[in-house]
Specification:
Number of strands: 6
Low-confidence stretches: none
InterPro entries: TadE-like_dom
Radius of gyration: 25 Å
Strand content: 15-25%
Structural class: alpha+beta
Largest sheet: 4 strands, antiparallel
Number of domains: 1
Shape: elongated
Distance between the termini: 67 Å
Domain TadE-like: 16-57
Helix content: 40-55%
Organism: Sphingomonas jinjuensis
Pfam family, one: TadE
Protein name: Flp pilus assembly protein TadG
Strand order of the largest sheet: 3-2-4-5
Mean pLDDT: 89
């Protein structure tokens, strides 16, 4: 209702000052609106990346053992969570990290989507606060490049990365069936 009254007053103005002010402020208002939309969309994409990462870690941590098909299904589940964003562009890995008697973390097994998993037996940099001797952790990682709908030629893309670490729930580790 206010918009209708505003437009009527704008059309009734005879001096043209209102029209000039409107014409001068329109580019600013348009940039403000589009910029606000872009920021909200980027935050939404970042939240989707976080949720998808959590989903991969959470689903994997509920198993006592997984096979290749289980891991493929888990990694594919992240595509549903990422919707409406293009999940096929995301690099997703799920890794089990084991700590030995000295709490030295190494990759037990790792699988990826749109990338290879990490090599077994290699060092994995876990935060010191969660390193405990003779335990395992499930680490899910997603890297996604967000492309803004407007102005991507001027501002480029935004890399979004998330890592979530969970301990196995049903057992001390999640074994990989070959």
């Amino acid at each position: 209702m206010r918009a209708v009254r505003f437009i009527r007053r704008l059309l009734a103005a005879r001096r043209g000052v209102a029209m000039i002010e409107f014409a001068m402020s329109l580019p600013f208002l348009t940039v403000l609106y589009v910029g606000g939309f872009q920021v909200c969309d980027a935050v939404s994409a970042w939240r989707k990346v976080t949720r998808a990462t959590r989903t991969v870690a959470d689903l994997t941590s509920q198993y006592t053992s997984v096979d290749e098909q289980d891991v493929i299904d888990i990694l594919n589940s992240s595509q549903q969570v990422m919707s409406p964003y293009k999940a096929s562009a995301a690099i997703i890995t799920v890794t089990q990290v084991k700590m030995n008697d000295l709490a030295y973390p190494t990759v037990d097994w790792s699988r990826g989507k749109n990338a290879q998993g990490l090599a077994s037996g290699t060092y994995f940099n876990l935060p010191l606060a969660i390193r405990q001797a003779n335990t395992s952790m499930i680490v899910a990682q997603i890297s996604y490049t967000y492309t803004p709908l407007f102005g991507s030629k001027f501002f480029g893309t935004i890399p979004l990365r998330e890592t979530i670490i969970m301990s196995p729930r049903a057992s001390t580790s999640v074994t990989m069936q070959q």
